[in-house]
Every structure is written in structure tokens, then in C-alpha cells.
Amino acid sequence: MLSGRGSNFEAIARNIREGKLDAEISVVLSNRENAVGLETARGLGLKAVCIPSRGADRIEYDRLLLRELKAAEVDLVILAGFMRMLSAEFIDAFPQRILNIHPSLLPAFPGLDAQHQAWSYGVRYSGCTVHFVDAQMDSGPIVQQAVVAVEDRDTAETLAAKILAEEHRIYSEAIALVLRGSYAIEGRRVKRGSA
Ligand code: GRF
Predict the structure, then answer these.
(1) Which residue in 15, 53, 83, 124 has a CA-CA distance of 20 to 30 Å to 66?
(2) Residue whose CA is at the smallest distance from ligand 1 atom 12
(3) pLDDT digits over 36-91, tens only?
(4) Cα(36) to centroid of ligand 1, in Å?
């Protein structure tokens, strides 16, 4: 599910196509018709559906999303720049089967424009986080993180670009891990197993 550019979606789709990730994208959902990611999905021959969210009631909107996802028989929901909070009903419909990626080392800098937040704060290291989704924003047990060093010459934009490159790498890794089922969630901790 995405709301914009869709570069994370594209990286995942590429990894699948190149045989680096054993998965299938059943449907791409967007809440914005002008999301570039929707076009990319259609160009790749994938089913891509827009359900406009403007003015929609959250519960009813999420039920529309759920209907599409269930019809497509998805067993893992990937949030890739989907700019909406999900209702408890949605989250409960896919228990520990929803992943999100966030462009900071959570729990630092949740929310919008995390790369700029990190750069402004003056951290020497930032990065990105793939985590299971729970009822709070940018919360939930952490599956994978990658660290990016902040150089003196970096701007918020160059930092964001470096983080994005890592996002494109670790999201597919995290998806592979979750699809293999080779982990156990203990409290907040996602422990790697050998399954
Ligand atoms: C990424 O930075 C991701 O971490 C955040 O939203 C952005 C989406 O970018 N959740 P894209 O649409 O995948 O290019």
C-alpha cells in the first residue's frame, strides 16, 4: 500500500522479478490516484487499485481496503509510504502480518520528515527501520534496521537519499524473513530462528 513515489514498492517488485525475493505482489493499493507508484505498478502489469481517502470515514475506508486485500488473498501487507494511520479493525484483521518502513532508526524521529528531523538534530548516525505495525504510529516490533552515517557535507536531502538506498535493500530482506517465518516475536523483540 502506498501514497506516493513508490520507490520502495518498485525495489521490492524488482527483487521479486530478479528472483532475489520469493514473493508475489497480488495487489497494489493507493489512497491517492496521482501516486506515481500506482502508475509504476500498472506498467509492471500488476493489479493496482486506488481507493481515494479524501473525506472518507476511517472505519469505512479501512473496510474498503480490507475487502480488496481479502479478495486478493494477501497474507502479508506491506506499507511502503502509505500516509495514513490504520484502524484497530484493520490491524486486527492481519495480526503481525503488516510491515512498515520508516526512514530513521526508531524509536528516534517517528512521524513525518524523519530524515530532516534527524539531520536538524545533528545526529552522526541515522538510518531506517522495518517494523511490524501496531496501533501506534511508527511503533511495533523491529524486524530490520540499517545505519547510515551523517557526514559534515550532508544536507537533509543527501541524507534522505542515502537512507532511501538502504530502505530499498532492507525492506526485501525483512519481507523474506517474515515470509520464511524464521522468527519469533517475544515482547518487542523479533528473534531470528532457523525455520
Ligand atoms: C520512505 O522514505 C519510507 O521510509 C516512508 O515513506 C517513504 C516512501 O518512499 N515510510 P517511496 O514512496 O517508497 O519512494
Answers:
(1) 15
(2) 6
(3) 999 999 999 999 999 999 999 999 999 999 999 999 999 999 999 999 999 999 99
(4) 12
Q: What HEC string does 84-152 produce? A: CCCCHHHHHHCCCCEEEEECCCCCCCCCCCHHHHHHHHCCCEEEEEEEECCCCCCCCCEEEEEEEECCC
Strand partners for 38: none
pLDDT surpassing 80 at residue 194? no
Residue located nearest, by CA, to atom 1 of ligand 1: 81
Which residues form ligand 1's pocket by a CB distance below 6 Å? 2, 4-8, 37, 80-81, 101-103, 164, 167
Per-residue buried b or exposed e for 69-90, using 16+ beta carbons within 10 Å of the residue's own CB: beeeebeebbbbbbebebbeeb
Residue for grid cell 524523519: 114
Question: pTM (2 decimals)?
Answer: 0.97
